[in-house]
Amino acid sequence: MGSIAQIRNGLSSSRQWIVCLLLVVAFLRLAHSAPSQEAYQVELAPTSVALSSQQARAYAEVLKMRPGAARKWLKGAPSTAGTLLIADCLEITELLVSQDATRYEAAVEAQDRRLSALDKSSEPGALRAYARAEIRLHQAAAQVVFGHEVQGAWSLRQSYQQMQAVVQRYPQYLPARKTLGMLQFFIGSLPESYRWFLKLLGLPGSVETGLQNLRSAATQPNDFQLEARLILALLEETYYKKPEAALQLVETLHRQQPDNLLLSYLLISQLKKQHRTDAALAAYRASPVGADYLPLPYLHHMAADLLLYQGQYAASTRANQQFLQLYRGQHYRKDAAFKLYLAAWLAGDGATAEKYRRQINASGRTVLEEDNYAQRFFEEKLPLNRTLTRARLQIDGGYYRSALATLNSFQLTQTTPLRDRLEAPYRRARAYHLLGHPDSARLYYARTIALAGNAPYYFAPQSALQLGYIYQAEGQKNTARAYFNKALSYSKHEYKNSTDTKAKLALKELE
Description:
Layout: H1 2-8, H2 18-25, H3 53-63, H4 67-74, H5 81-98, H6 104-120, H7 126-145, H8 149-169, H9 174-188, H10 195-201, H11 207-219, H12 225-240, H13 243-256, H14 261-273, H15 277-286, H16 298-309, H17 313-326, H18 333-346, H19 350-360, H20 369-380, H21 386-397, H22 400-407, H23 418-435, H24 438-452, H25 459-473, H26 477-489, H27 496-510
Helix pairs in contact: 1-5, 2-7, 3-4, 3-5, 4-5, 5-6, 5-7, 6-7, 7-8, 8-9, 9-11, 9-12, 11-12, 12-13, 13-14, 14-15, 15-16, 16-17, 16-18, 17-18, 18-19, 18-20, 21-22, 21-23, 22-23, 23-24, 24-25, 25-26, 25-27, 26-27
């Protein structure tokens, strides 16, 4: 459940997965010897593995993000492993969505009590063992998100080992394969430079094994199949360029459960990522609201982006201000201030734009790539070009022909900065690529790479990545491999983490 809670909060594009990646990277704060390997008795027919009907109803309400309704179903339920697990799913969801640091200590103490109860329990079967490992993973997520990286790394190490033991002892228990597969995938997709450390910790990662475990949990009935289906679909959409399948799944589930706020969020997010701004805004305006639902401030931040793409600067400003008013976390604050700057600057309000520019540096963290990009904009004081900025926003919004028309008005001069000289052909390449004109896209991607040299901007590495995808789709594996390796070769740019991960996974597909 921790993974879906993180998705709800929008912490990853690669963004939906940022907390999982943070948990793994947090290992770098620890150095422990590898654990000894234990032998586990295999039980092919595990007992006590299913949630009761009362627990299942509570879990369904957690997924709908209706905490009051979930608590009603849990009220009076016996303190079995299933009840303890669903109660923890509810609490970690509330904590990670709210990002309220004042609730952190009480939440971790409650997790410790649940773990102690499970340790003392004589309840047989896979569910107890799974609940113990899953709650420990929730605790790891909470600890890392709220700045306790050392404790979080230790908790994640424990969770991984415990979940591995559940799969070894109960190979037919699919929920454990869901969580273990997710962790195996992310560890396996980390850059090579981390591998020695993970090996030292005794936490093996494998993209292939992780996907296999996830698919087992996603394609066969179990209490947590919906989670597994969503994780697998979003993973394949983000890293394997399968957007249609992910959107189709989310649209189908949303039609079946229009009162589910999680599915509404995922629908908006998928439509936004696939540049369908009008549909995404319609889904945002139709999303379920009311006192029964957990407030989800990040929805307003997404809406602010969508409105910015359309050139509705005042409406975008209101949406981001609403986000900042409601949100108690530290992620996305710099990004929101940057978007507020863009709205004011593009609207011609220089004084207000400067106020928001200073706000970038005033709060928030630089863990996420979006926030890091905003901070670099503030620190480097590079002036943006209005024409290129409008074109970028139009492309992000799916208005590709309008973007090309905008780019036609861009004029190079002897004083044009290198960044703008690179951005102009890159934006043309993106517009043509997304319009389905790969030959024109190829030309401008290649031009971007040729002009860039070793410039520390993301335009050339992203061009190499996209050229790799184009040649991969055409079956030209050797050329695709060369471009994916080129994307990895750039040493410093704004989106290096996500670009490198995607290139690395694409190379694995070509093996």
